[in-house]
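Researcher: Here's a chain I'd like modeled. Treat it as a single chain, no partners, no ligands.
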Amino acid sequence: MENLYIVLEDLTMILSHSNNLDTYPRLMVVITFIYTIATIFICVFNLKSAKAAREQAAEQKRQFDETNRPVVDFTIEPMQGAALGLVFQNTGKKLAREICVEINDDFINKLEEGRQRYIVNLTKSNFILGINQSKVAGFCLVSSQSYLLNFPSSIKPLKSFCLSAS
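Model: Modeled as a single isolated chain. Structure tokens:
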């Protein structure tokens, strides 16, 4: 680009010292043509730069959204005696809203009747977890802890799990 300006300055100098009136209009056409081509190149490169900037901004937004979202983990942890706890913990960087849980019917049927109602109530309501907050839904399988060891591991307690970050 710098070389183009030097050439244009040289042409302007030639024109200013030229006594031939016929050369001046021709040189002005050449100079205008060169400026037009240079302007077109500048516009093309500016459009490419703007497109790259838009793509970069979109990628930054995607990365921000990926990093700043709720991440809710589900575990089953032993409590006292034959009690277990369904533990939901938000380890993400955003509030988890409208968390809904659906418990497997086979799992609920293995519980005592009073405990079944408690777990079913958990599935009927949505809840919210703040950042690094957890919720424990504790229940007892039966009064005998030996039954806990015989509880079928093939029965998965969680059927579905959903949350909203909005």
